[in-house]
Structure of Macroglobulin domain-containing protein:
Amino acid sequence: MHSFQKRYLFFIALLLSELATFAQSPTAVNPIAQSFDTYRRQTLQEKLFVHVDQALHFTGETVWFKLAYVDATFHRPLDVSKVAHVELLDHDQKPILQTKVSLSAGAGNGSLFLPASINSGHYLLRAYTSWMRNFSTDYFFEQPLTIINPFRPLDVPAAKEAASPVVQVFPEGGNLVRNLPSKVAFSVVDAAGKGITAKGWLLTAQNDTVARFNTLAFGIGSFSFTPSGTNVYRVVVTDTKGLTITKSLPTIYEQGYTMHLDEAEGNQIKLTVNTTNASASGVYLFAHTRQLIKVAEMRQLQGETTFLIDKSKLGEGISHLTLFDADRKPVCERLYFKRPAEPLAMTLATDQKRYPYRTKVTLTASVQATAPKTDQADLSVAVYRVDSLSAVNPNDILSYLWLSSDLQGVVESPAYYFQPENADVRQATDNLMLTHGWRRFNWETVLADQTNKNAKKGFQFIPDYNGLLIQGRVTNPTTNAPVPNVLAYLSAPGKPVRLFAARSDSTGRLRFEMQDFYGTQDVIVQTNPQDSLYRLTIDSPFAEQPPATRLPALVLDENQTEPIQNRSVAMQVQNTFWNEQSLRYTYPTVDSAAFYGIPDESYRLDAYTRFPTMEDVLREYVLGVQPRQRQGHFRLVVPNAPYRELFDENPLVLIDGVPVFDMDKVMAFSPLKVQKLDVITSRFFLGSMVFSGIVSYMTYKGDLASFPLDTRLLKLDYDGLQLQREFYAPRYTTDKQRTSRLPDARTLLYWNPSLRTNDQGKGQIDFFTSDVAGSYLVEVNGLTASGKAGYQRLIFEVQKQDIP
């Protein structure tokens, strides 16, 4: 097994060991549970949540964001993947901005500057790790963003007839069976995917009305009926504008199974199973909450049976209830949502309700204090102006982790399902479960023989658990076939001297672990001279699969002209007067030593006589390198100092970290361009590679100083991890600052990606208002080390006149 595979399996095994705490009794009696548990242990599931500063931006502004990285089962911060990939996709699902953000201890933060080349429209921000790329894009975090470019006219879509609403129907459990009672959920959405109010009828082919129904919330509703005889049914739906849509029901089977869930007394749910299959002898019920097994029971079946499930057995959030027949084939499935009993309780308070311009706002955030000091909450805070243009962020960390991330498709207004519970909310929640069914696996995969070839194949993408991972391939240029066991080097010329090496695996894949690799840098990839005829390629780290989410066209009306102009002026004012202060970056602390550490010999050439040729330099005062000629060509020999003998093999020779194999070029290189020479006079191990000493030349600027590199190597600009940009906001602590004529047109007053609460669960910040009046929204998302999530919002006012 490749060393990378061994290492990532080790890390995942450590993490998944914690998931083994559930009761073992179900797996002891149920082969389905055993297969499921085996699959779960081999497929770590991750979640990313992104708190974006606001949902609407103008070009010329910066999108600020905070990432929360957790495991998909307990929602606890993870420390496996160290890199998140964030991209902005346009209406055609093409990326217009892409970046890589460092993750540490389950969190990360970054920013995206919106250039003037972006057109107005709806865009999709999505985020994922390398490991997530092994699975469906449904795992990725997604959030729509609206971007307005005030300097470009809006591309108005060609006039066409308004698209008809889309009607979908979803039988409970998945099937309709003749002569068995069934519940059917339905959804009615417009062209933008938003639910609409509608009413409808279930009709037979003879236009007899079987059932009447109405939407309840967000275009979702349900009705019940029993398919009978040879009737053919259709649904007729009418929206509030009088538009009528007809939809046929799914296939009605002559034989099969149905399941129906009801709330029962004593904090239980009742699951009723019916079948028309006379030979059916029994059924299995299997329930899991985010892949933790909760129920595994069997019942005898003679037409009908029931399961009573104590709600306390189910985990909080979404549980999957799957029914298997006697041959252990899945026949029915539905979802059940259990509200989190104790989300992270949070309160926000400002010292005033209204503020004049350029006044300090003191914000106190209090969360439910937890006993261990290690369980303090990590909060992200955004404060921005809301008006007729701005929309409240559709996502919050509580509803995303516990609801949206485990459902298929877009959940409209997910926070609705977390409001104080009543009959309408309960019914709307159950309708949502019936219309958004989805799981993070296929049962065919789970129940497959775990010893088959597919199970042994492994995953294409591994976690970036040591930092940025650059992947590439070695192929035969003639046949395009992968070439295994080829040694390749990746260099990033500059200071400090860094070199990365990898050997291609059986599929020709190369993996370079790039620690502390920030910003855009030149990258040089090459092989040994004997392998230089092979083709080297570097893979894109971003997913090629488009999202399933479709974005509607942006439509602006005349009433929004003035708000757009005001926001545009504010953006231009800020960029004109405050641009210099806003372009500040936090540079990470990185090891400044060369990759080989402290050399055995080091020479700063300016401290010695400047000889005209490299041969003179080496012969006159460099003890650890002996130049020799053989058949008219130079080679360098390095002593193996510990054994007081010379290496027979050539050393690794570097120019600014780039391996060089032609010693004639090295000896022809002007020593006047070299600032420093390091020598390693012993064997050096770089991963699985062994080198017979190292000779490292460093130029003054670390830019190769026009050294003639081999033309067959691969050279490209590569974007490393994003440098963190500092959020800047002026502070008005003196009369001179408050009366300054420098305009302050900020609409985003404050952004803090990581506010830590103290032992008492409190955190306090302060910031200053700008010269823009209006209503300002404080938006806070928080997560504790134990996986408790919460959010809260608060509004205050900024007025031009002082408060009396």
Remarks:
- The first strand starts at residue 46 and ends at 52.
- The chain is about 10% helix and 40% strand.
- The mean pLDDT is 90.
